[in-house]
Specification:
4 copies of one chain form a homotetramer. The first copy, chain A, is mostly helical and 206 residues long. Helix content of chain A is 76%, strand content 0%. In chain A, α3 packs antiparallel against α5, α5 runs antiparallel to α6 and α6 runs antiparallel to α8. The radius of gyration of chain A is 18 Å and the shape is globular. Chains in contact: A-B, A-D, B-C, C-D. The interface between A and B is large, with 41 and 36 residues.
């Protein structure tokens, strides 16, 4: 019965995340010309699509790992999950605005704010799951002090105001946080070991 | 065999609801300017998106709880479910029309009518499930007199004509009904207890 | 292993059908005015949406019943299923063209041709499943002489040319075929009994 | 636990592929006129839709076969799968650009490059799965020397520059590779036997 509840929670989240990751590509509008130079204005749109694809992909992958540890689904987990999906659903809009305007200040600020909200919502979902399963649960032990999670939040909060003075640095931080989660561990060897190990309930959060 | 049927019913409903909740975000069109004031005209579109996201989220969550209690899927349940999905599928249109026109009278009336039709279709699906499982079924007992369901229907019917004289009150009622289902119980403690309890087949309907 | 294959076949079909049924609603473009008369031009678009929603809903429901009887998935079944999804995926286009042009001749002819192609593809999928499971399989016995299937094909073939002389009659036939499958049996009592019976692997095809 | 992980991997991939295959149809824009000649300019868009539908369908079907052989999901498999989905997600854009411009040189070159990237990503996913399951795994034995996979890569690399001198030949090669995977074996009899056999974990890659 609870497994069922979890199954649908996963299926619904998979559906929403799959749609989010795919409709972002609709922002790359088919150009009218047929020369390479007609594709050139699409480059920033394409790059912001790549960045957001990586982010949504990491979220899906980590959501997948985290839900793995869930034994029973509570109402609070349901709400926290919908809350996360809400902020993720704003990524296509933020990506489109940033990409079409070649990474100018305010769209990049908004993009950072949506990333920050997503990270916060992920953190709340993590809290809700730990709350339901106790401090000795797999997730609670895997998360530990959650240094990577806090570091991401701090980096986003640094990057958002940096857009006003050094926009390229801010953008670099967005990329850095993505990479930080993409390469799941600092020590490369352990990282590669992780890559080839069947995944357990370890914690990952962008 | 029946569990299978239920599985596909849930999967298909999850798919349709996931798409409905996500395509609504496509109504928030990327603006051409790059100033905060260029986002301002999007505020009503955004707010109506939030309201509809909450509504669709509640419907998904309650649909999830209600389907939990289903033991076997009949043809009548299939049809009633498709009927509910039909009305939910009109929410993106009604949301877009209301949001782009800053909550003026007729679009808000239509929005209320779609909400009313969704609530009615949900009620019919509930009837179909109870009809198939008997008056002693989990759902029948959980629904009881269905005060919250009837109250929602009455509130929608009140709000729709109120749009002509006090549009803000009507809009407030739409928000109120959403909140009424969002906070699943009046008594906060019981509500929070529910939030942390593995969900059973209790009845919830927006 | 085969159950797995069937599970993914169903999941993929559910996904595609869920998207087809939902993107059709995107053809109902949000109008610029805020009066009832601004909705009036949308009426034929809305009616063709309703008709196509019913058709896709029936296809999903019958696909669901038919796949129920599948014991093992062969390559031919996979291809026949993709072929059916291809024709179903053209319904949103045909619906939009017919609806936006108020049911004039040629768009209605095309709509009928897509319906005919869908029915033909469904028939081929049915053949592929029976071929894989033998003449004594549940599906083969349930289909029998497949009178309803052949009747639909003949009615579509009648309706398509009728568009040139009596377009309303042709449209009426499209509605009639939908109703014929919607009300699953001629004898009302038996029909209602079916509605309340857990569904078995009986055959249904629009 | 691992089966679960695989289940979500399949569900997410199914969702993304289902959306990719369906949003391509949105490129076939509803024409304003109501004559057959108004459909004529849509013919190349339609043909490129058919080609891409077949490609995505083959990818889904082969992905389905390949995932069948997976016993446990590693981080590397997750990443390789997301990488494949990324390139597949660019097919609707490449299809639209090629179709709207009646198969002129550069859009056809880009289309070929996206096909090449998809085939490369598929090959990397295959490598990741074999790496996780060892050289004696079902997949490793089924793939063998992977002649068909290498032949496809070589044909794409031939076709891309051919667009500049003999665009029709290049297009013909794209169609040929699709057919080569569509008809799963050279010897027709064996091919038809395969069509009617429950599928095992045999290797297929476009």
């Amino acid at each position: 019965m609870n497994a069922m509840g979890k199954g649908r929670l996963e299926a619904f989240s998979d559906g929403v995340i799959a749609i989010i990751i795919t409709i972002m590509v609709l922002e790359i509008k088919v150009p009218h010309g047929t020369q390479w130079r007609d594709l050139l204005p699409l480059l920033p749109v394409f790059l912001s699509y790549v960045l957001s694809f990586v982010y949504v992909g990491i979220y899906w992958s980590n959501h997948h790992h985290m839900l793995h540890t869930v034994q029973h689904v509570t109402g609070r987990i349901l709400l926290a999950n919908l809350h996360l999906l809400f902020w993720l659903s704003l990524l296509p809009f933020a990506t489109g605005w940033m990409g079409e305007n070649h990474f100018v200040v305010l769209p990049s600020v908004l993009y950072g704010m949506v990333l920050l909200a997503c990270a916060g919502a992920y953190w709340m979902l993590q809290k809700a799951i730990i709350h339901a399963h106790g401090p000795d649960s797999t997730l609670a032990r895997a998360v530990g002090k959650d240094r990577k999670g806090w570091l991401s939040l701090i980096l986003y909060m640094l990057a958002i105001p940096l857009n006003f003075s050094w926009p390229r640095v801010a953008l670099g931080i967005y990329v850095l946080v993505a990479l930080m989660w993409f390469i799941p561990d600092r020590r490369i060897e352990r990282s590669f070991a992780w890559l080839d190990k069947p995944h357990s309930g370890e914690k990952d959060q962008p």
